[in-house]
Amino acid sequence: MSNVKVVKKNNGGTIAQNKRARHDYFIEEKFEAGLSLQGWEIKSLRAGRMSLVESYIIFKNNEAFLFGAQIQPLLSASTHVVAEANRTRKLLLNRRQIDTLLGAVNQKGYSCVPLACYWKGHLAKLEIALVKGKQLHDKRQTEKDRDWQRDKARIFHR
């Protein structure tokens, strides 16, 4: 008998990140949401063809939707399926999570944006966050702090 372990690949983990959101907003609270997707979209996600740059979360009828995210169809997509890259996709959240997000957006003035899309097992998950906008001086201060942390790590590493 051989002691061979079978290790599954997790397909890279992260599908897409929204680095612009981390630069433009203060992140207050994060949530994990599922995505309601079609078959061609899953195949495109496995190929890494997703962009979250100009996307945000909207709420209608006590449901959350991902608006503005692009999933580019593969060239080998089926001809009988109409592949719409900018389609609004439903987010799968618990009622309590939706109530928390909806209350913060409507009453406290927060925005809700996606931060990253990643694989969790065989499921595609979306990391969303309640955020507040940064002003120009806040962005500069964040950049200075990041540079200082990098320089400090470089100095102490020697």
From TrEMBL:
One Pfam family in the UniProt entry: SmpB
Taxonomic superkingdom: Bacteria
Main localisation: cytoplasm
Assigned GO CC terms: cytosol
Location in the cell: Cytoplasm
Listed InterPro entries: SmpB (IPR023620), SsrA-bd_prot (IPR000037), SsrA-bd_prot_CS (IPR020081)
GO MF entries: RNA binding
Keyword NADP applies: no
SUPFAM superfamilies reported for this sequence: Small protein B (SmpB) (SSF74982)
Alphabetical UniProt keywords: Cytoplasm, RNA-binding
UniProt record, GO biological process: trans-translation; trans-translation-dependent protein tagging
UniProt function note: Required for rescue of stalled ribosomes mediated by trans-translation. Binds to transfer-messenger RNA (tmRNA), required for stable association of tmRNA with ribosomes. tmRNA and SmpB together mimic tRNA shape, replacing the anticodon stem-loop with SmpB. tmRNA is encoded by the ssrA gene; the 2 termini fold to resemble tRNA(Ala) and it encodes a 'tag peptide', a short internal open reading frame. During trans-translation Ala-aminoacylated tmRNA acts like a tRNA, entering the A-site of stalled ribosomes, displacing the stalled mRNA.
Family: Belongs to the SmpB family.
PANTHER family: SSRA-BINDING PROTEIN, TMRNA-BINDING COMPONENT OF TRANS-TRANSLATION TAGGING COMPLEX
UniProt name for this protein: SsrA-binding protein
Gene source species: Acinetobacter qingfengensis
